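Pipeline run #58 for the internal structure catalog. This entry was flagged by the ingest filter as a single-chain record with no existing model, so it goes straight to prediction. Upstream metadata was stripped on purpose; only the residue string is passed forward. Reviewer on rotation: M.T. Logging verbosity set to normal.
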Amino acid sequence: MLKNAYLNEKPEKELLKSRLKEQEDLLFVNQNKIKDNKLPVVVLIEGWGTAGKGTLIGNVINNIDPRFYKVATFDMPTDLEKRKPFLCRYFEALPEAGKFRFYNTGWMNEIVMSRLDGSMPNSLYEKRIASIRRFERQLTDNGYLVLKFFMHITEEEQKKRIENLKDHIDTKWRVSEGDVWQNKHYKACEKIFEKYLEDTDTSSAPWYIIDAKSEKWAELQVLERMNEGIDIALQNHSLAVPLLQNTFPLVKMPKLADIPLDGKELSDEEYKEKLDKLQERLSELHNRLYRKRVPLIIAYEGWDAAGKGGNIKRIAEALDPRGYEVHPIASPEPHEKARHYLWRFWTRLPKDGHVAIFDRTWYGRVMVERIEGFCSENDWKRAYNEINEFEKELDDWGAVIIKFWVQIDKDTQLARFTDRQNTPEKQW
């Protein structure tokens, strides 16, 4: 794929200048269309060291109102970031609808650097590639425009740039050990880059290979692809995405109406005795989870007034308060609605060894949001597969996921609603 960078011939100086001005003006116009149509745009800039990624981003964003973009720069994950799922920090950085987010390197860099230093075996590489393809597909399925650019320069050009930067006291700091190592092992790096680009080049999120030998020529190539992508995305923005066939093995569950609810009561004495023992056991397990760095996610769904809050309180009593967090999930806030619906759950995931308790979950997409018309039919139908994919990411990360549905009959629910109405401290 890297050879594709040289398929287009660089125009003469004056023509390059006029085309660049035309594309810069067009991007300035397109930013308003993006805002008006609430189109979120992800721009991933990857490439060789010294290829000019930062300079390119700086040139491009000069044509956009600063209120409508942000730039996220990613190095290799810190020790703290390693305690979250691989995709977590990239999901957290997603833009709101109607805005740009420029990723100054991202998930590609993390993968290829791990391959080059030998820390990522083939099995983990294949798992990461599958995660990335799902991640990018979920974004485009949910209305994101994903633009991926790889800044390509030759081995000779990279060596020349490294030497030029190192020759000046004010610029030699810009040359990292990684840049020098990369140039010394250019062929090996090129092979790893090619493999990754081929494995993640999809119709919905293709790679654009940019000839980065000239700063202005690189900018023109990127702007042309950006404006073209924006135009196509705006034309297709209202089209429904084809639904994928479910490939996850599902466990057959009984219908809620068939679950017997009679004869399940405990006496106060029996309840207290069992509760004390189980809370003591849970406290022991919490310590073990922390020691082994295993994340625990407890997810609640169920009828209103079913007792989820009281249930969570009993669990929390057994946990070390330094190692858990309860997340009350209500209707999404405006900044949450402006992003992928799973964003507000990705941003609430615990560190490994910690516990996250959700009193409502991502299943709201296929229940309350579906019932009350907060999302389209295509959205909630697609969400079944996306939820399974989300939970697979959590499972691959090593999380223990425990999901509870709290069931009551309609007479019990009515009685509890009536009790709430007559109890001032419960009326909130």
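catalog note: The chain has a mean pLDDT of 95.
catalog note: Residues 2-236 form a domain with the Rossmann fold fold (CATH 3.40.50.300).
status: ready for reviewer M.T.
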